[in-house]
């Protein structure tokens, strides 16, 4: 599955990751690893030819969710304070300081004012449904007559 070259790279990468410095020795043309204590270690050639057992590596202990979950300490301590202050400023502006404009006044009017005849249609539908169920429709009929008289008064103007 993996080439011999890949196995060499995996072994070498594992050893390099444990060291702070990776220096190529110019005299022997071999890789020399320097550890923190200043000791030099030359990897034997036969070690590079052996396969790396996955169960003995650090990758065996790593889980996929560890890659995608943020650490507890990754969030700044002051993040809650900043978010809370932002929400407070937002609410103060939009609920207290902001004055109404013509768009707000337009939105506060009834939908029936914008669409003539809509209220009459909805009342007729509601009257039909209540009559099917056998319920009282006197209030709806009275409202329908009032709406129709207002609509006929507006259309004659």
Span of the ends, CA to CA: 88 Å
Q: How many distinct folded domains? A: 2
Count of alpha and pi helical runs: 8
State the helicity in percent bands: 55-70%
Number of strands: 3
Percentage of β-strand residues: 5-15%
> What is the general shape?
elongated
What structural category characterises the helix and strand content?
Answer: mainly alpha
Trace the largest sheet across and list its strands: 1-2-3
Question: Taking all residues together, what is the mean pLDDT?
Answer: 76
Order of helices and strands: HEEEHHHHHHH
Weakly predicted, low-confidence segments = 18-31
Which value, in Å, is the CA radius of gyration?
Answer: 40 Å
For the biggest sheet, the summary is:
3 strands, antiparallel
Kindly describe this structure.
- With 157 residues, this protein is mainly α.
- The protein folds into two domains: 65 residues, no CATH class; 47 residues.
- It contains eight helices and three strands; from the N terminus they run H-E-E-E-H-H-H-H-H-H-H.
- The chain has a three-stranded antiparallel beta sheet, with no helix packed on it.
- A hairpin with a 5-residue loop joins strand 2 and strand 3.
- Helix 7 packs antiparallel against helix 8.
- The N and C termini lie far apart (88 Å).
- About 9% of the residues have low confidence.
